[in-house]
Specification:
Blueprint lengths: L1 H14 L10 E10 L17 E15 L2 E12 L7 E13 L2 E8 L18 E2 L8 E2 L2 E10 L2 E10 L20 E6 L2 E4 L5 E13 L2 E11 L5 E4 L8 E18 L2 E12 L8 E2 L10 E13 L5 E12 L3 H7 L4 E10 L7 E9 L6 E10 L4 E11 L2 H6 L11 E9 L1
Parallel strand pairs: 10-15
Antiparallel strand pairs: 1-2, 1-24, 2-3, 3-4, 4-5, 5-8, 6-7, 8-9, 9-12, 10-11, 12-13, 13-15, 14-15, 14-17, 15-16, 16-18, 18-19, 19-20, 20-21, 21-22, 22-23, 23-24
Length: 427
């Protein structure tokens, strides 16, 4: 099976000429991940041995064009796993059609909403469901079925968004270290005193309004949305089935802002989100880490600074510093609300800016509240020729007493230090 799998993939790559799709509308990557330590799933999840390596292929395709005044966008993503079929998927980031009428533009279909400005923390990116097959610090997203009306004026851009459905998140095979075996058997929507199993055919009237404008050196975005939260599920169980792991997505009113201020060679960034969850006290969820999980309102804020230094020989260094904090609740609830609940990020990207696009990246997440928790990564990538790129990366995790005792924060990555190699073919 292994030989057939990779023979098909490599054969497909060889059939794609280097001149095909010269405008770069897609890429396919061969990925290998090796975990340096042996590990087993949680006792509640069967205490089964998890794999020490993974081999998979990822594909992305993009196409944008217009026809007789109609504009269409297509962005497809797919993954094929060599051994674990539950890790494989095909889905759309974008599949929509639209038309411009004066200073209005209307579109309908699958959309991606990318509002965050930060390198590490993406506070305001809460509108798309997630593909939970990547690193927890960089979740990929799914396209959201929606109708978007955009109004462009000299005083800013307004967007009115209607989402009639809830898109379930994607979870990998329960043996995977990717999400530490947290594959819920059921995804639920919580609204008021009602908890119902998610059905993507069920209609939920969800709305968002968005405003953005450039005020001199200040780039500002503000928004409000009433929707089913897609990015912060509660993992737990119903009291009637305490051993069945489920995911609970809660109806929420989100109000937020994102800003970027340019000051010479310095860039300052800020993101803020206030979340008012609509869940009655009568809703009982047993937290998978133990105890009863209360649904509570909170605020999330991140600040960041970015600076790029250009050397005389055309090399460049970009420095990133960011801080994220959960507001309005105490330490216990902060750790329930977010993995990065009081964390500092420091990153550096060093680029040679040569013909082969040699680039080195390193990053460090430090928890300032929970003892001993940190996540770090480093990577090197370069083009091999006009069609191929290679990347090597390492990610490590440390946890402390807090994570050991409450099984939150970076606990799900304990023992998951990984080495990765990726070969990417552009076409």
């Amino acid at each position: 099976m292994k030989n057939v799998f990779f023979t098909v993939i490599i054969g497909a790559l060889s059939l794609v000429s280097e001149t095909a799709y010269a405008d770069g509308r897609g890429e396919i990557s061969l990925n290998y991940r090796y975990y340096t330590q042996k590990k087993y799933t949680d006792v509640l999840l069967g205490n089964e041995k998890q794999p020490t390596d993974l081999k998979f292929v990822k594909l992305s395709l993009e196409e944008r064009d217009d026809w007789k005044g109609w504009e269409y966008n297509l962005s497809l993503v797919a993954r094929a796993d060599e051994k674990y079929q539950e890790n494989s998927y095909v889905d759309f980031n974008e599949l929509n059609i639209g038309r411009s009428l004066g200073n209005w533009q209307f579109s309908a279909g699958y959309h991606m909403f990318m509002w965050s400005r930060l390198e590490a923390y993406h506070v305001v990116d809460v509108l798309n469901s997630r593909i939970n097959d990547g690193n927890i610090e960089r979740f990929e997203k799914l396209g959201e079925k929606s109708i978007v009306a955009s109004h462009y004026t000299s005083i800013g851009t307004m967007k009115f968004i209607y989402m009639p459905y809830f898109t379930e998140g994607f979870y990998p095979d329960p043996l995977m270290r990717i999400f530490d075996g947290l594959e819920p058997v059921r995804q639920n929507v919580v609204s008021g005193n009602e908890v119902k199993s998610s059905d993507e055919e069920d209609q939920y009237n969800q709305f968002a309004v968005y405003y953005a404008h450039q005020f001199g050196d200040l780039d500002l975005t503000v928004f409000a949305m009433d929707h089913i939260d897609r990015t912060r599920p509660i993992f737990g169980a119903r009291p009637s089935t305490p051993t069945t792991l489920e995911a609970f997505y809660v109806d929420v009113l989100d109000i937020g802002a994102a800003a970027t201020f340019f000051w010479g060679e310095q860039t300052f960034k800020f993101e803020y989100l206030y979340s008012d969850f609509n869940a009655d006290d009568s809703v009982a969820i047993l937290d998978y880490t133990g105890g009863t999980r209360e649904v509570f309102d909170y605020q999330l804020a991140s600040i960041g600074h970015e600076y790029t230094h250009n050397y005389a020989n055309n090399w460049s260094s970009s420095f990133y510093t960011e801080y994220q904090y959960v507001l309005g609740v105490g330490k216990e609830k902060r750790s329930q609300a977010q993995i990065f609940q009081n964390d500092l990020f420091i990153g550096h990207r060093f680029a040679l800016n040569d013909a082969y696009s040699n680039e080195f990246t390193l990053g460090l997440y430090i928890d300032l509240e929970r003892n001993g928790e940190a996540l770090y990564y480093l990577s090197y990538e370069r083009r091999l020729n006009n069609a191929w790129k290679a990347k090597v990366n390492f990610r490590g995790v440390t946890i402390g007493d807090d994570a050991e005792s409450d099984r939150r924060g970076l606990y799900i990555l304990d023992g998951d230090d990984e080495l990765g190699v990726t070969l990417t073919r552009f076409f």
